[in-house]
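User: Teach me something about this protein's shape.
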Amino acid sequence: MADDYRVPNNSYQPDNATRIGPNYGYQPDNATRIGTNYGYQPDNATQYAHAYPQYGADSMNECEPVHGWLKFFLIFFVGIGSVATLVMDFIDYDFDNPAFITAGAMIADLAYLATAAFTIVSFYKRQSDAVYLARIFIISCFVLNLGALLINSEGLSSKEVTAALKSIIWCGVWFVFTFASNQVKERIPEHTRQFKLRDLLLGASILLPLMAIVTYSQIIERQQQANALSDFEMLAATLETMDDNQATDGRILITLPDGVTCEKEINDDGLTVFSLENVDEGTYGNIVSEHESDMDKYMAEDIFEGWMPEDATSRNTTVLVDEEYTKDGNTVWAKKLKIRLDDVPVYWDFAVVADGRSDKFYVISTYSLMDDDPTWYKLFSSIKFL
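Assistant: First, the predicted structure itself:
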């Protein structure tokens, strides 16, 4: 008897006719009115399922396993792409950055990987937030690549720039795919989709740190531009008043001791390198200055290791001086090494000096055959911050 009054909708099984009556007031003889007067035609079954989840949530049509472009998207773009991004970012982490920048990058990368994992699982399990997770992943990928271009455009090779642009284009393609794919619509019908709290948390864990990093980078870039302008203005003003035995880059002023010659050149990083030599005393070296707001002993140690001569090893090197002190309000990290080359001792004097009034610092490095090199002391005493 129930079969005669069943509305043509897969959600209404014969044994549900009784439930429809007591719960909603539709008696069997009203079944026709339900279909004709209240708009529950067969093509409106999804509307009814959405309105009454108890009849629709567990009755999604069976569909084929994940295949085609959706499978390609989940395996290569989401799965392999997220792992590759995490590995590459981990290799490129710059731990010299402020701690909150490094921590933010790690949080964003881990959340990015988690989003990828949830996206793959949710599509295979046909979870209600699968499509939203996919779009969050795509948007995050777009922001990651765009951020890389904005933050480090000058530091990227042409190949890296091309790869980032390709990723951005693919993000656009896959984002449209989540709207247009029939397979996506079949696996996760629109009326069953729900945005969950985890989606919000994952998206925020990716995008907020990235926004903070981009903002910080923009601030640093503007500060560098302001410093460059200030250095140029100082350089112009100093050039008008300095003596013939002086040299400057707009950040420091060097007064050359007698017998010391100086050549100035611009390196690939745009920094002015002063090459110094005293032929009579057998001393030669370099001086470079720059801006750094976070200069400390750890960064000074990194600079020292970067300037370490290739010939210096633990077997032929003796550390004579390794100290930190204050001179004229400036912080000094100084080292002196004795390096034995072919039984000939060479003395390397090195110092990082940070200005106590600004974010300027300079590095001075000299080599000499004399243990107590007078040129080093004269040079070191003659350098002034502008």
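Now, about its shape. The beta strands are 246-248, 252-255, 261-266, 272-278, 283-291, 317-327, 330-341, 344-354, 360-368, 384-385. The longest helix spans residues 197-241. If you'd like, I can walk through any region in more detail.
User: That's plenty for now, thanks!
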